[in-house]
Fold this sequence. Notes:
alpha/beta, Udp-n-acetylmuramoylalanyl-d-glutamate--2,6- Diaminopimelate Ligase, Chain: A, domain 1, Protein-Tyrosine Phosphatase, Chain A, 9-stranded mixed beta sheet, UDP-N-acetylmuramoyl-L-alanine:D-glutamate ligase
Amino acid sequence: MRTTTVARIAERIGARLEGDGTAEVGPDVVIDTRRATSGSLFIALPGERVDGHDFTEAARVAGSRAVMATRPTDADLPHLLVDDTREGLPALARVVVARERDRGMVTVALTGSSGKTSTKDLLAQVLEDHGPTVSPVGSFNNEIGVPLTACGVDEHTDFLVSEMGARGKGHIAWLTSIVPPDVAMVLNIGTAHLGEFGSREAIAEAKGEIVEALGPDGWAVLNAADERVAGMAPRTRAHLAWFSPDADHRHPEADIEVWAGDVVADDLDRHSFTLHARVDGTTCEHPVSLRTLGAHQVANAVAAAAAALAALTSATGHRPDPAAVAASLSSATTRSPMRMELHERADGLVVVSDCYNANPDSMAASLAALGNILGRRRAADPHTRGVAVLGDMLELGPDAPALHREVGALAARSGFDLVLAVGEHAGDLAAGARAGGAESRVVTVEEAARSIGWTSHDVLLVKASRALALERVAEQVLDLGGPSAAGLDFDGRPAVGEHEEARK
């Protein structure tokens, strides 16, 4: 946010001020004392295990200039007192976003059952080549992560990218009240978290709230290859932009249309394709060579391209250059940790860590990508062994046992020789793998890394929902050192958004 006085913030959000109102605060807004900077505003959020109010003095020592809290604390700082800091944070974000939108900042919101974070990272890198851009760290897509990210914009920001998850009806509508979108994108409607929603139709109903938030001058960016997403078109007054991973779902009547053709992959399953883009009746073709792994990244890339073209149109009022978008996609890298991270040990062992999130769709995409890598490596090295350390997919409801067995069977069909299964549904994963013809074992997370003798011929996939912290397995196999500090927020509390992928 722009640097301003504490009194001004209190006035704008209706907080009661205690202390020096002339103190200037900003630009950073933080909920973690370790991320406090000189002049920052510390938000004292309650947590499941600790309370941010107990760390306001630590925030002061770290440089914070003011505190938002529900009660006075021992910190010698101005206090913005609100009834609930979980409501005070979004109230502040609404004010910050509204001010920057009034001067021309473009907001892009995206949702979907899978692929949001990867697509968000690609889109942010495309937009950064056209102007200062703020986008979430990791998957900050819930009621805390969305406003916290939004508070990062200032008078220099041209684009704000907001990733939005949902745990039920009305959640995305509430998030769009914080970040009203100029461009809203829906990637897909999958089987993730059926336990919360009950059906794909219910998921579509909730996700579609994002396009209902658009005004008539906005852009709805929709997946033409997903019938439930395509069915959202009547729910918006905005312009339509369509994307598809192939040419089989054309919408030649739309103002913007993007699709992929001539898709090929290298030996590490990085895909190249021809980006076809039609904007204002003009069609062009440009090559794209992705640096990210997996065929599913082609769909993510064309989605990012369509959203970028819509955002650039909103920002300038003119037809953007698809060639520049294609060039940006070709230089984009994986930004968020634990998402298809490729590592190679000195002896040649390959590890892909994809353990931030897991649902049936993302499991299928990861297994397919690693299956392709296994096939190519076996052509050069017949001793190649494929090992998958797989864990629970959370919140799938009564279908969870069957869905875990299907994933185990899919691992076998994808070419994995051995499945090491962990978590509550380890038995189901292992049973599915055995039924598919692969060897399988039920192990603990602690046992997974040392349960077999690793060799230079191994290709390892580590994949589960975030709660299992399977990155520890990848670190031990690669000998990267001690446990990762990722996933912790202020003073040991689970990080903001840690489980939002499992909740949407």
